[in-house]
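Run log, item B.
One chain of 250 residues. Sequence copied directly from the ordering sheet:
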Amino acid sequence: MTVLEQLNGGGVYLICGSIVAFIAVVCVIFMIRAWRAGKALGMDVTRMKRAVTASATFSVLPSVGILLGVLALSGSLGVPWPWLRLSVIGALHYETQVADAAAEQLGVSLGSGQMTAQAFPTIALLMSICIMWGMILSTLFNKRYLHKLQQGGKTETRKGGGFGDKAMAAMFIGMVSAYIGSYVGEFISGNKKLFSFSGSWTPLVVVAAAALAMSVFTYFSEKKGMAWLDNFSIAGSMLIGMLAAVLIGH
């Protein structure tokens, strides 16, 4: 039995499925309590139903991006583990990047069927440790941070956002720049002669297509008053980028 077959085994499905089922039950409980609290506050039931319907509708397409992440990781990590990660606490951009970075350091290429019994625990442990700090820091400091937001939220808004917003934007820009830089480096190093364009330019085209799609989503959501497009921007950009890769590959 191969490592991938073991990762897709019934025991792994049982463990991961039990955790996902527990989280699903908790979500249902909170949904029921929120509905009852809304009625107790005298909220219009018709509007509450519309809010539930709208939320469910706008959750469909963004969840496609999550499904794509599960499928992308399942070829190396099996289905249960990515399913658990992206269903409970994981973020799509985080899980794929950390898994790829960890695999690269271990000499394993994701999606190539090279996963080993030694590499998977290391990758899974790194994916878990790196993201758990959000829960820990939220438990310790969220109350104090919420008080700060309530006291100085308007001031930070007038100044263009607080430190957290700026730090997150800077981190994301740096991360994207590092990935694009690696693609450019691979493209240049793959050229045997100057301007021969024999290197792998597919990632660059995919990046350009996804960036263009995101800019279109952002334009219509911010400039045309179509704020609901924010819920579909990431998934839509991913789908367009993947479509570009498929078209180039063929």
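Observations after the first pass:
- Confidence is low (pLDDT under 50) at residues 194-198.
- The chain has ten helices and no strands.
Flagged for discussion on Thursday.
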